[in-house]
Amino acid sequence: MGRDGTIRTVNHALPGEGLAAPAANYALAIVSDAPSRLLHTSGIVPITPDGTVPASMADQADVVWSSILLLLTEADMTPADIVSITTYVVADHADELPVVMAARDRYLGGHRAASTLVTVPRLVRPEWLMEVAVVAAAG
User: What is the four-CA torsion angle of 69, 1, 81, 53, rounded to 10 degrees?
Assistant: First the structure.
């Protein structure tokens, strides 16, 4: 919903007829019909405003997704405007993927976007366990 109270739905999941169902809670593809604004984030890393990085994956996921929500708000968007998510998780922590996916699902509040999750050997700083970039489209 925009700041003026109107609902602007420009994004729609494709059913992917004839394809296998998604492996988790995401959409295989999203069509954006004539969006007037696009938001592309950089990879958002788990650094708090005071410069610290939480130790646990769950806390890092909360920092990352809270940061994404703040950027969406600045862009006059909501999680429902997210059309694509790319998540990077350090491979040594692949056993914590359910934590990462649960945080995504919680912050999206039932909205499904196209989503890719990639394990990587490491991120730029050794204490970073995950990083997320999103694309959002609004009318």
Answer: 0
